[in-house]
Amino acid sequence: QVTLRESGPALVKPTQTLTLTCTFSGFSLSTSGMCVSWIRQPPGKALEWLALIDWDDDKYYSTSLKTRLTISKDTSKNQVVLTMTNMDPVDTATYYCARLRSNSGTFDYWGQGTLVTVSS
Amino acid sequence: AIQLTQSPSSLSASVGDRVTITCRASQGISSALAWYQQKPGKAPKLLIYDASSLESGVPSRFSGSGSGTDFTLTISSLQPEDFATYYCQQFNSYPPMYTFGQGTKLEIK
């Protein structure tokens, strides 16, 4: 059974760095073809893809946010970490991690999401 | 970057109705499109992948079609549990890039 769960602070101040952790089970990120992504959703708005890391430790980022994002993985802990620098109130959103189906472009399993509010 | 435009943005329908949601890509994407359902406070759920393939466990009243730039999600007979927001999503193989539509909110009439 595949599960993903996001964890991190619920509140960050403007200019701070956000660190979120995705802990997953039911698959291994060392298996060829496996990838995990981060996706966010501001309140009442659409989904926005942020970053992806694959089994080979290749990393890909949203063009508009790439200067602020870093994604990494700890295969032994079954975790993927996203950091986002210089947080702003417009970054207030629910942040999801999701598994990308092997050799596919679709997200087949999602975490429940974690709401991050940026406010002083 | 490829843009996805969904129409309509919102839709009111009744139980038993047939409903169609459209997603248009700003350039051709072959069949690289998925559809998700999202209910309030919940994560999106994959319904359709590769434009027309039904995800395992998803009721057969959901179907997808299209290729190139124009895609549709059809619900053949609306059930009470289908009232939700629906998103299309496209993917670029390399470099990996993923884009979502702005969503279509399906409400009870």
Structural overview:
The complex is a heterodimer of chains A (120) and B (109). Chain A has 120 residues and is mainly β. In chain A, strands 2, 4, 5, 6, 9, 10 and 11 form a seven-stranded mixed β-sheet that branches. In chain A, strands 1-3-8-7 form a four-stranded antiparallel β-sheet, with no helix packed on it. In chain A, a hairpin with a 6-residue loop joins strand 4 and strand 5. The radius of gyration of chain A is 14 Å and the shape is globular. The chains are: A mainly beta (120), B mainly beta (109). Chains A and B meet through strand 4, strand 5 and strand 10 of A and strand 5, strand 9 and strand 10 of B.
Overall pLDDT confidence of chain B:
96
User: Overall 3D geometry of chain B?
Assistant: globular
Structural class of chain A: mainly beta
Q: Percent helix among the residues of chain B? A: under 10%
Compute the gyration radius of chain A: what is it?
Answer: 14 Å
How many beta strands in the DSSP annotation of chain A? 11
How large is the share of residues in beta strands of chain B?
A: over 45%
Low-confidence stretches of chain A: none
